[in-house]
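User: quick one, sequence for these tokens?
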């Protein structure tokens, strides 16, 4: 009798454990990701700790088309003639959003000497970019769009933001992997080294 009770208790315990643990395998429905822009006015400074990479120095601009602010397809080569700073970014990228006001100030400060292209990698294209962009009040920068991320892939960028400086002949000088404070003395020096060439 005692053995029969122990077997029933063991079976009951196993059944309860089986049902209890089977629910652990079920995932709850995922919450949808936000589709709007990041509303934080600025990301923490720690996120703006990009590193300079000169391993691609001398590499030619990739021959990849992307969408201009007017909706026409353009290539980087059409901007040769003066140095070009290409910033790959996205509306969902915190460090991208944090550094964008400083890129706007850089574009304003160096207008006439340096072309600054802010090229979005948002897969939702121009509507997603313009929804965020129009709220910013930028006066100098214009939103370029590469919704298929063709340029990002051609440049070998695996992270955002990535900013690449090309000389007037379309040769890479350096790239910044990660966000940067473009008003900081170190970044000003990086830009000036190319403007003096």
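Assistant:
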């Amino acid at each position: 009798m005692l053995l029969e009770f122990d077997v029933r208790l063991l079976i009951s315990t196993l059944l309860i454990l089986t049902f209890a643990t089977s629910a652990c395998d079920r995932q709850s429905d995922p919450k949808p990701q936000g589709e709007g822009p990041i509303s934080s006015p600025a990301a923490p400074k720690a996120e703006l700790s990009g590193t300079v990479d000169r391993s691609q120095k001398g590499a030619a601009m990739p021959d990849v088309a992307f969408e201009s602010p007017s909706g026409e397809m353009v290539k980087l080569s059409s901007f040769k003639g003066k140095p070009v700073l290409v910033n790959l970014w996205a509306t969902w990228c915190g460090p991208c959003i944090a550094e964008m006001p400083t890129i706007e100030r850089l574009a304003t400060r160096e207008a006439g000497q340096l072309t600054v292209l802010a090229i979005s990698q948002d897969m939702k294209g121009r509507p997603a970019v313009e929804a965020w962009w129009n709220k910013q009040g930028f006066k100098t920068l214009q939103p370029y769009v590469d919704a298929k991320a063709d340029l990002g892939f051609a440049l070998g960028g695996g992270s955002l933001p990535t900013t690449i400086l090309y000389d007037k002949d379309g040769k890479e000088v350096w790239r910044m992997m990660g966000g940067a404070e473009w008003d900081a003395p170190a970044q000003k020096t990086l830009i000036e080294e190319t403007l003096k060439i």
